[in-house]
Every structure is written in C-alpha cells, then in structure tokens.
C-alpha cells in the first residue's frame, strides 16, 4: 500500500447529509477503502448504505465479520457492533461501549491506526460531544493524516471542534472541498519518515474493543486510578491524559471522554431524582391515606402525625421537582459554549 489507502470517518448528528455530500464527490476508481461510523441506536435499523449508494458511485454496505477489505468500497458500521480494521480484513465486535456508543468512532480509528499506521486518513464530520477525538490521537501518533470538517460548516460543531482543540489537525476544510482533498491525499505516497511505530496503549485498547481476555486482566493500565466509577458497570475508571485530552476507561473497556462522562453522570443523576420524586409522591399519598383512616377511627394524634409526614414529604418532593425542572431546562437549551443556539439532536439516527 504505497499511499493513504485507508480512510476512516466518524460522525453523529448531521452526519447523514454530510456523508451524502462527501460520498458523492468520490470517483469510481478511488484507490482506497472507506470505513464509516455513524452513531445509531443499538436496537435501530440503519438504512445508511441505501442512502449512500444513491448518493455516490462507490458500493456501500454493512460488512460481515471477517470480510476482506477492497479498495473502492465503503464499509459502514452496523447497529450495536464496533467496526474494526484488521490487516486485510474487517472485524465486527460486540465490545464495550465507548462514549456511550456501540458502534463508536474511537475503536474504528484506533484499530485502523494500529493496523495501517501512516497509511490512514482520519476524518471527523458533524456531531455532538467528542467521540472520535481519542481515536484521532491514535491516528496522529501512528503518523496518519488528520482531517476535520470546518466547524463553521458543520450542522453540529461538537465532534469537529473537540478534535481541533485536542489534536494537531492537518486539514480543516468545509465539505465542499473535502472530497477533492481526500482524493489527493489518497494518491500521495507515504513519506519515508513515517515509521509504523507500535504503541502499547493503542494495542491494549483495541484488544479491549475485541473483548480480548488478556487485555481485561492486564494490571498495567494506562493512566492512573480516578475517584470516579464507570456509569455503565460501576467499576473504577482509570484517568488517561494525552496532551490536552483527558479521558477515562474501566477494567472491562467502557471508555469516556471527560465531557461524555459528565453527560453520563448527569443522566444518572436525573434518573436518581426521578426515582426520588416517585418515592416521595407515593409517601405523600400513603401518608394522607393513613391520616384519613386514623381520623375516621378517632385517632386524632395519629392523624396529625401522618399529615405532618405527608407535608414533609411534599416539601421534599417540591425540592426534587424544582431540581428536575431546572435540569431539564438547561439540558434542552441547545446552547453551545460560544453562546450560540443549536437544535438539539443526540445522534444521527433521527435522520435515518
């Protein structure tokens, strides 16, 4: 493989339109294989191959596990499976979620960087939060090329801006220019100075995505133990620092960026508050019923105690209700860090 024959693309919300435009610009004789992860629900049905087959001339498909890699083909991660690039073939795995997603962008980028090093072009398009940033770090470390959609051109700026903030990006371009850029990069020979260096943590984390037992039993974890628990399994999260990027991974492989971890914790907190509100409202209802029964039986003292208990539970419920109302308002504003308002859409799946 003399040139950059492996293109890995990650996207989320706004990704269907972006991918359709990008795929339409690829020629039929493109000497590269393209791999795409678009966030979709685990139980959803992806029709992205059908959409992209209509948009461009390259054949698009959900691959099968073990399928051979061919130039001029586009391989799309199926729902609920990580898409991994191996040397010469594709692996699909039901490995641990990363950044709350399966398929996730980071495992694709990391596996491609491990298998093909400097022959990889990593591309991040429109999307929320920051999946793909850690994977782009791996691409950069293995001397691949890093390309990001200009945030000013993206429907959702989160994923492109996170990559720009944390990785030395080689090219930041609008979609209208990206297709021609990628074609030129594919045909550019890999410089002699680009050495295919193995990196221990890339190997370990790729093995975790493949559910390799030895990786989960490895005691020499990258990073250091944090004070946080994994939102998915409750295990200790290890904090990994890569330049400006801080991320977390548990023993069995669940992985989070700092931003995604905060989002997951916020969801867990909201769930706990709803449970508390339900319990308090049931307590109010039961206490009032007990007070009424005590009153009917002439037990005024007991009735008073039950009414006081109902009032106390009601006051606590009001505190929780206000917390939920405030939290809902802040989560649904769609306000970006720069103060701009954007429509809220958690994944690209709604567009499918």
What does this structure look like?
The protein has 352 residues and is of the alpha/beta class. The protein folds into two domains: 1-256 and 336-352, Rossmann fold (3-Layer(aba) Sandwich); 260-335. 41% of the residues lie in helices and 17% in strands. The chain is built from ten helices and 13 strands. The chain has helices spanning 15-24, 48-55, 105-116, 133-141, 158-166, 175-186, 200-209, 213-217, 258-296, 300-331, and strands spanning 6-11, 33-38, 60-61, 74-76, 82-85, 90-93, 120-124, 145-149, 171-173, 224-229, 236-242, 245-250, 255-257. Strands 3-4-2-1-7-8-9 form a seven-stranded parallel β-sheet, with helices on both faces. A four-stranded antiparallel β-sheet has the order 10-11-12-13. A two-stranded antiparallel sheet has the order 5-6. Helix 1 runs parallel beside helix 2 and helix 1 (15-24) packs across helix 6. The longest helix has 39 residues, at 258-296. Residues 329-351 have low confidence and may be disordered.
Count of helical stretches = 10
Radius of gyration: 25 Å
Number of domains: 2
CATH topology group of the largest domain = Rossmann fold
Give a short synopsis of this structure.
With 352 residues, this protein is of the alpha/beta class.
List the SSEs and their pairings.
Blueprint (H helix, E strand, L loop, with lengths): L5 E6 L3 H10 L8 E6 L9 H8 L4 E2 L12 E3 L5 E4 L4 E4 L11 H12 L3 E5 L8 H9 L3 E5 L8 H9 L4 E3 L1 H12 L13 H10 L3 H5 L6 E6 L6 E7 L2 E6 L4 E3 H39 L3 H32 L21
Parallel strand pairs: 1-2, 1-7, 2-4, 3-4, 7-8, 8-9
Antiparallel strand pairs: 5-6, 10-11, 11-12, 12-13
Helix pairs in contact: 1-2, 1-6, 3-4, 3-7, 4-5, 9-10
């Amino acid at each position: 493989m003399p040139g950059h024959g492996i293109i890995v693309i990650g996207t989320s919300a706004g990704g269907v339109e972006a991918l359709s435009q990008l795929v339409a610009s690829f020629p039929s004789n493109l000497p590269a294989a393209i791999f795409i992860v678009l966030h979709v629900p685990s139980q959803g049905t992806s029709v992205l191959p059908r959409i992209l087959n209509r948009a461009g001339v390259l054949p698009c498909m959900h691959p099968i596990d073990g399928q051979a890699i061919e130039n001029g083909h586009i391989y799309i991660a199926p729902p609920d499976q990580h898409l991994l690039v191996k040397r010469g073939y594709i692996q699909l795995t039901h490995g641990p979620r990363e950044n709350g997603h399966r398929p996730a962008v980071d495992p694709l980028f990391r596996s491609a960087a491990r298998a093909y090093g400097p022959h990889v072009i990593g591309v991040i398009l429109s999307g929320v939060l920051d999946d793909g940033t850690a994977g782009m770090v791996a691409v950069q470390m293995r001397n691949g090329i890093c390309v990001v959609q200009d945030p000013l051109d993206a429907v959702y700026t989160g994923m492109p801006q996170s990559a720009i903030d944390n990785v030395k990006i080689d090219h930041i371009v609008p979609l209208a220019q990206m297709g021609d850029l990628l074609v030129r990069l594919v045909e550019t020979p890999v410089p002699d100075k680009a050495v295919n260096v193995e990196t221990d943590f890339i190997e370990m984390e790729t093995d975790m995505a493949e559910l390799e037992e030895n990786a989960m039993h490895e005691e020499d974890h990258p990073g250091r133990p944090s004070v946080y628990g994994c939102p998915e399994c409750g295990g200790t999260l290890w904090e990994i620092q890569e330049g400006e990027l801080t991320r977390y991974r548990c023993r069995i492989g669940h992985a989070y960026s700092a931003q995604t971890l905060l989002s997951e914790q916020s969801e867990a907190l909201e769930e706990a508050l709803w449970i508390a509100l339900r319990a308090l409202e049931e307590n109010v209802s039961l206490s009032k019923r007990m007070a009424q029964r005590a009153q009917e039986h002439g037990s005024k003292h007991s009735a008073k105690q039950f009414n006081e208990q109902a009032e106390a539970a009601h006051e606590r419920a009001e505190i929780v209700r206000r917390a939920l109302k405030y939290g809902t308002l802040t989560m649904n504003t769609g306000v970006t860090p720069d103060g701009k308002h954007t429509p809220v859409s958690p994944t690209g799946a709604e567009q499918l």
